[in-house]
Design a protein that fits this description.
Blueprint: H1 2-47, H2 59-85, H3 93-125, H4 135-168, E1 170-172, E2 187-192, E3 195-200, E4 206-210, E5 213-218, E6 221-226, H5 229-236, E7 241-245, E8 248-251, E9 257-260, E10 266-271, E11 274-278, H6 280-290
Antiparallel strand pairs: 1-2, 2-3, 4-5, 4-8, 5-6, 7-8, 9-10, 10-11
Helix pairs in contact: 1-2, 2-3, 2-4, 3-4
Length: about 290
């Protein structure tokens, strides 16, 4: 009965942890739609001011703006993935800046490409023909806005990470000295808003690499720790932790079962609702450790 109750709680916590992202996407979609509808109506009002007859139909500015908003919305998940892949690094700031400046060109090209494609489809349905204009000049015009939007989304991403980590709780080593010899910790200190509490290392179910952080999963709750998986595993090995994938490590004491796959990889089950990938690279060593 206790196991069933615990699995239910884990499932609920996992679902709750995903909700903020869904809410953010909905808010972003609402903002983009509202902003672009206002822009479209402003274009029509400017063109028809003082009784002037616009050179375009009423639906056209709405098509221009909404296709731009839709293209942006579709590219946001790719931006988030890229921001995670190339996180902010003050020690390698020039490399960080160069990579992201180059990415603004790719982002703008994708945004413009999708936008033009959607517009051409709409114009074809409406019986018209969409003319993007001179490619170089129009792309430069769009790039200015896209580059600003790129870094605006980056700022939102880091603001979200900062606020969410404070609300959810961020883990750290206890009394860690800069030049002290790394040891196997028994607890992690978690700071959540104005409170501090301890998390037992043995209570951690598994670890997940997330850029400059490692997420600690404890009974469905997630606590980010500023570290790398490769640097953390040697310190936790004597506590029963082992890396099983390039992005995951598991507490061997929490493993309930293993499922082999036809590919040669496998799945490691913590319970009925949580499974982790086990790479062929770690499979033999993992089985030896369990024995």
């Amino acid at each position: 009965m206790n196991d069933i109750s615990r699995d239910t709680k884990v499932s609920l916590f996992a679902k709750f942890d995903k909700r903020p992202r869904v809410y953010l996407l909905c808010l972003l979609a609402l903002y983009l739609l509202t902003n672009n509808i206002i822009n479209a109506s402003s274009v029509w009002m400017e063109a028809s001011r003082d009784g002037a007859v616009p050179e375009f139909s009423l639906w056209e500015p709405f098509a221009w703006e909404i296709t731009s908003a839709l293209s942006t919305f579709l590219l946001v998940p790719i931006l988030v993935w890229w921001f995670k892949l190339v996180p902010l690094s003050l020690t390698h700031f020039k490399r960080f800046l160069a990579l992201h400046l180059g990415a603004t060109l790719i982002y703008s090209a994708l945004h413009v490409g999708l936008m033009v494609l959607f517009r051409e489809l709409i114009y074809k349905v409406m019986g018209g023909n969409y003319d993007f204009g001179d490619v170089l000049s129009e792309f430069f015009y769009e790039y200015r806005k896209d580059a600003f939007g790129y870094f605006f989304f980056m700022a939102l991403y880091y603001a979200y990470r900062f606020i969410y980590s404070r609300l959810k709780g961020e883990a750290s080593f206890i009394n860690e000295q800069e030049h002290s010899k790394p040891s196997a910790p028994e607890h992690f200190l978690v700071r959540k808003l104005d409170k501090e509490f301890l998390v037992k290392v043995l209570d951690i179910d598994y670890l997940e690499s997330a850029g400059n952080y490692v997420n600690l999963y404890v009974a469905g709750r997630i606590y980010p720790l500023r570290s790398t998986l490769s640097g953390l595993i040697p310190r936790l090995a004597e506590r029963g932790f082992m890396q099983i994938h390039r992005s995951y490590a598991v507490n061997l004491n929490k493993v309930q079962s293993i499922e082999s796959l036809s590919s040669g990889d496998a799945k490691v089950y913590i319970n009925d609702s949580i499974s982790l990938p086990l790479s062929r690279r770690y499979k033999d060593k993992f089985k030896q450790q369990l024995q």
